[in-house]
Amino acid sequence: MLGSLRRTKERGRGAMRAFIVLLSAAMIAAAVPADAAEIDDHPLISRYPGSEPTRREGSEFETYPLIVGVKPDSLEFDSIELEGTFTRINYENPPDRSALEILTNYEQAIAGAGGEIIYKCVEAECGPSFAGSRWGRFNGSIHLPGVGGYVAGKVATVQGPVYIAIGVAERRHQIALLEAGEMETGLVEVDPDALGDELDRLGHVAIPGVFFDVGKATLTAESDVALQAMATILDARPEMRVWVVGHTDWTGDFGLNMRLSDERAKAVVAALTGRFGVDATRLQGHGVGPLAPTASNAGDPGRQANRRVELVIAP
């Protein structure tokens, strides 16, 4: 069987160098019909032979909570928040193959590429069948009833790690990939004068160009332009006190989003006071997670707009 992960040179932003995995041909002899796919596979991972693609979606930069644990008793998930290029593809299973056989082949492909299996559950380990829809509500995964299972893995590439989540149910399966490369920056101009005017007029302003490491509150070097703009705004208003407020979209665990947004706001405060000379008595950092969206969370453009850092005039 041609390995699920194959070498390619993908064009465009977020492109990753891929890799080849050869699995034993004895695993499966089925071939993909020539007319099977109007929807392309992801360049980094091919479909299980005989599967029919039904839907593909994604974005060049997305936040995705990767499920890394299931708590059947409480019907809750453990997850890690990832950011990067996101792709999700749904497939119909070949009729003569079991869900566990399909899941096992994908798992072996990840391991064969030198990848790490982060988490795996099968059948009842994934939770009770009556609660299968909670997978979809959590991060858009397919529903996982008592048949099949789920595996999450991580494969290192030259341009960064690729996280792979595969859920296999009785009749269909889904592959989600998060290529955790750096998003392209330097595309947004930060004008301190215009932002300061908006702050004066509205009492709050979102500052573009504030970037963090994936799933962390660590500011990247690309954020220095935005941080300098904030310092300039505050230097021009020496009597003004502000709240630095972190926002997320609604994707993933609510508690994690609240904590991460708060930690990121405080990281901005620490950078402004420690590196840019802003008086610490003028700043407080707070996170409100997904509680104050500026756009609809139903689509990717809205979710991107909701992930932001704002300055808010404090009394």
Automatic annotation (TrEMBL):
Segments forming domain OmpA-like: 199-315
Primary residence: membrane
Keyword Transcription: no
Entry GO CC: cell outer membrane
Signal peptide annotation: 1-36
UniProt cross-references to InterPro entries, sorted A to Z: Bact_OuterMem_StrucFunc, OMP_bac, OmpA-like, OmpA-like_sf
Record's subcellular location: Cell outer membrane
Keyword line: Membrane, Signal
Annotated protein name in UniProt: OmpA-like domain-containing protein
Source species of the chain: Roseitalea porphyridii
